[in-house]
Amino acid sequence: xxxxxxxxxxxxxxxxxxxxxxxxxxxxxxxxxxxxxxxxxxxxxxxxxxxxxxxxxxxxxxxxxxxxxxxxxxxxxxxxxxxxxxxxxxxxxxxxxxxxxxxxxxxxxxxxxxxxxxxxxxxxxxxxxxxxxxxxxxxxxxxxxxxxxxxxxxxxxxxx
Length: 160
Hints:
- InterPro entries: Fe-S_Maturation_MIP18, FSCA_dom_sf, MIP18-like, PaaD-like, Zn_ribbon_PaaD.
- This is Phenylacetate-CoA oxygenase subunit PaaJ.
- By secondary structure, the chain is α/β, with parallel strands linked by helices.
- 17% of the residues lie in helices and 21% in strands.
- It has 2 domains: 68 residues, Fe-S cluster assembly (FSCA) (GMP Synthetase, Chain A, domain 3), CATH 3.30.300; 56 residues, no CATH class.
- The longest helix has 14 residues.
- It is globular and about 55 Å long.
């Protein structure tokens, strides 16, 4: 786990896979294979192949000869899994962390006709006077925003 925990996200290299909440487990199976379990941030995430390769490289470089990286989809990843350290690192690099994800409990989903905009703090000045300028950012998991107070643009990781 110590070695795997050093691997960073290829799209947001300020975050380790632990910070992002993607690294789920490292264990040995009955045959002695080191099995690393990861969960994608969303279905079809293009960074998963690089994450797997980076984990295999880090572990084999550290002397582990038989390594398997498994992807699990259940439970699905949630932006709530980003650690406090990860949220701090995002802010330090000018990226707003996501708010709490909407948890579905299996019951009815209330129909609302308006979308309540989340309160987004500017990672530069801390103001909440911000606006989303595009739902699509540099990666599929981010949106573009602008601070009305300091006029700086910034990315924000979406809630999932």
